[in-house]
Design goal:
Length: 803
């Protein structure tokens, strides 16, 4: 046992010996000060900072509210003389709460009072204590049983507490409560079962949505034209001239506030452990002057950016366009750890080998050719000629030559040292700078990332004159600066913000049209392929016109992609070949002089379902905000409430962040338990609905990140998606329905009338759960009735089109 445990046990012994003498003189306030405080703060490991005294809510005051770090335990104090009568001769700890409340009226009133405080505040555990006795119980249950129908843990005296100190410690000490030992003791360690989701009744769930030949052909062609061809060397320079959209976080379609967009990389570090400052890599005038100034330093330059914001594109444009003159007169190496070295266990060997290969391929320099090696080591060879083998030059020229070759072989065998020497020789002689980019390190393991930075640091410091750029995700940067390789260095970091998504899509599609129309000739395309490209051309034209006519399309793509350019383009390409849209019909309409416009509902289905026949939360970029982790009907609204609270709290903040503890406090006041909130927050983080300070991954049951911020993805879910038929229809398949009658009425049919009936039944179910909970009805943070009404209007529009 730990020293704290033993010390607390000794403190309890002293408390038991000293408290009885003055017991009769103490009222409730004095009992709390002289006995209960000592019991919890000296004997059970709680700190006074862990406790809120006399916390009020709705005119009621809880004596002790303990934080761990969420509100986890409420203790209601009674005066010392108010003893709980317990069965004589019974020496057990576990009691039936109904039996206690039936036979001992003073226990009944105290337990009911503590339970009501816990339930109104979403606190999982409650206790009643008079300084000498404790009755502890689980006050919020998620297994369908009423809390006061279960069991309680009863310590009838200080003597019993001492004799059963391990049980007392495991159940009511700070570490014991944080580890939920009281719940395990009284309820068991089994999560309550949820009813089966509709998806569990579908044999081939999630299934594969079939495509016809036309759709498959469009899918393949769109990938080639929109993605593959532009990466070819022939088109690269023109692509960057015409398609590159500079970083501009302020989107005209974002549903989150301006300050959140501007502060995308704010709070990369927690407030209690501030990290190094970061600088935007681009300004309104182009590449930051600081970036070029930093290139003369002797340390790696870090390029920090979220997934898909365009770190690789930034590097390629920097080389080809922004600083083309500089790079034309430099030796530039690009190491892609996302596509290269996947089978290499040792980057220290791979990177020099790859740089030697790029020297041969890109610059025609065979650095391992004998003549070049001799030039690199001409001074060393001159010293060698005066060394111990100098006399062999006259006596045995052949032997001398062999010794000389052995000397050079030894030099060449150390690849990294040789490359360092070779680059120094070439750069000095030709007055050329050497630049190394190490990209996509964040696609590798933590160990590989640490190794990559160490190599970058070694090269930047010791390989004069080499400038090294390393691209990282923000969370990798944070983790490495706090605990990993970067913690021992002081690198300069530049952040890369995403460009405007709508601008990227338009530029990319217009460029693709030039390819399909032959304005950008591609020699490799046959006549047969060109005919097929005409179909893709029609679809791209329709999509561009639809973006102009229906801003809701751009709004959806912008917000759901959350600044991830790669994802946004994937959504568009996926639509071109989706099995959910009759693209052949669209092409025919266009060929006949029509003017087809893509409705939002059509695009939504393609994105939500992807290649699956049914909604799959693991694959879809869209989250199910109505999912449950506990059989508690109000939990259907927990994630929307959490997102709404974070959005409301962050709107007035300079960087959009809101204190996590305030979110827990508000949600617990709506009777959600810390476990439920933990699960909802973790789910929201994984689906990018909210983000955390320092990009820390939430771990249920542990200390959560200090601050939260809503993302455009999360805000769009609750402000738009929840009121649309395609979304609700999709996610109800993945939602446990606690009402057996409603659950039995749902069907997995694709027939439109049955699909509409499903959504109406699900809507009635959610309406009832909201209306039947007085706490939810009273909140103005998330207005389900208003959303439900807009969903009802959407259903009527669909029914009208169906007629």
């Amino acid at each position: 046992m730990s020293y704290d445990y033993e010390m607390c046990r000794e403190n309890l012994g002293r408390l038991a010996n000293s408290s009885l003498a003055e017991a009769a003189k103490r009222n409730e306030a004095t009992t709390r000060l002289q006995v209960i405080d000592r019991l919890f703060f000296e004997c059970l490991g709680w700190n006074r900072d862990d406790c809120v005294s006399e916390e009020s809510q709705s005119g009621t005051y809880a004596d002790y509210t303990f934080l761990g770090p969420r509100r986890v335990l409420i203790v209601e104090a009674k005066k010392e003389g108010d003893y709980f009568d317990l069965p004589a001769g019974v020496d057990r700890l576990d009691y039936s709460i109904p039996a206690l409340m039936r036979d001992y009226k003073n226990v009944k009133a105290a337990v009911e009072q503590a339970a009501s405080y816990c339930q109104s505040r979403g606190v999982p555990y409650g206790a009643v204590c008079n300084g000498h006795q404790i009755v502890a119980f689980v006050a919020n249950r998620s297994d369908g049983l009423a809390p006061l129908e279960g069991k309680a843990l009863v310590f009838s005296s200080h003597r019993v507490m001492l004799e059963s100190f391990l049980d007392l410690w495991q159940s009511l000490s700070k570490p014991g409560v944080e580890e939920k030992r009281l719940q395990v003791r009284l309820l068991g360690d089994v999560m309550p079962a949820l009813p089966p989701k509709l998806s569990e009744t579908i044999a081939a769930y999630p299934g594969i949505k079939a495509r016809n030949i036309f759709q498959t052909d469009l899918q393949n062609l769109s990938e080639v034209v929109i993605e593959d061809l532009i990466a070819s060397g022939d088109l690269e320079a023109r692509f960057f001239e015409e398609c590159y959209a500079k970083s501009a976080t302020l989107s005209r379609y974002a549903v989150i506030s301006k300050n959140i967009l501007e502060a995308r990389y704010a709070a990369l570090f927690d407030s209690d452990s501030p990290g190094p400052s970061t600088t935007p890599a681009t300004t309104q005038k182009g590449i930051s002057a600081e970036l070029f100034a930093e290139s003369f330093s002797r340390r790696p330059i870090l390029l920090i950016g979220d997934v898909g914001v365009g770190k690789t594109t930034f590097i390629r444009r920097l080389v080809k366009i922004e600083a083309a003159q500089l790079f034309e007169s430099s030796l530039t190496f690009y190491i892609d750890l996302g596509a290269q070295a996947t089978l290499s266990a040792d980057l220290k060997q791979f990177i020099p080998k790859e740089m030697l290969r790029q020297l041969r391929k890109n610059y025609g320099i065979d650095a391992e050719e004998a003549g070049f090696v001799r030039k690199v080591y001409s001074q060393e060879l001159n010293r060698f000629s005066k060394g111990i083998y100098s006399e062999l030059r006259e006596l045995d020229p052949s032997s001398y030559k062999l010794k000389e070759i052995e000397f050079l072989h030894e030099k060449l065998s150390n690849k990294d040292q040789y490359l360092k020497d070779a680059l120094y020789y070439f750069a000095r002689g030709n007055k050329r700078q050497v630049i190394l980019f190490i990209d996509n390190t964040d696609q590798r393991s933590d160990e590989t990332q640490q190794q990559a930075f160490l190599i970058a640091q070694e090269i930047a410091v010791g390989w004069n004159p080499v400038t090294v750029f390393v691209a990282l995700r923000p969370e990798t940067f944070y983790r490495s600066m706090r605990m990993g390789t970067l913690s021992g260095y002081h690198p300069k970091a530049f952040t890369i913000a995403p460009p405007r998504i709508d601008e990227v899509i338009r530029k990319r599609l217009i460029f693709a049209l030039k390819i399909t129309r032959g304005e950008i000739p591609i020699q490799a395309l046959s006549n047969t392929v060109q005919v097929r490209l005409n179909n893709l051309e029609r679809i791209i034209e329709v999509f561009l016109r639809s973006l102009d006519a229906n801003p809701a399309l751009e709004e959806f793509i912008d917000n759901i992609s959350g600044g991830n350019v790669r994802l946004a383009l994937d959504l568009v390409r996926g639509f071109f070949g989706t099995g959910y849209v009759d693209t052949q019909k669209i092409v025919k309409i266009q060929d006949e002089g029509g003017d087809y416009k893509i409705p939002l509902h059509e695009f939504l289905k393609a994105v939500i379902f992807g290649d699956a026949e049914y909604y799959d939360p693991e694959q879809s970029p869209v989250a199910n905000v109505f999912d449950l982790t506990h059989p508690d009907p109000k939990e259907h609204f927990l994630l929307p409430l959490l997102i709404s609270l974070v959005a409301a709290g962050g709107s007035s903040s300079a960087d959009g962040f809101v204190d996590t503890s305030s979110i827990y406090e508000r949600l617990q006041s709506l009777r959600f338990t810390p476990d439920q909130i933990d699960s909802a927050l973790t789910r929201g983080f994984r689906k990018k609905l909210v983000e955390t300070s320092a990009r820390r991954v939430p771990q249920p049951g542990q200390v959560m990140p200090h601050a939260l911020r809503v993302t455009s993805v999360g805000a769009y879910h609750i402000s738009h998606l929840c009121e649309l038929f395609p979304y609700v229809e999709a996610v109800l398949v993945d939602t446990p329905i606690l009402d057996a009658e409603i659950r039995a009425s749902l069907s997995s049919s694709h027939e439109i009338n049955l699909r509409l009936a499903n959504v109406k039944a699900f809507q009635r179910y959610l309406d009832y759960q909201w209306q039947s909970d007085g706490y939810l009805k009273s909140t103005a943070i998330f207005n389900w009735p208003a959303i439900s009404n807009r969903l009802r209007m959407d259903l009527k529009r669909i029914e009208a089109r169906k007629r």
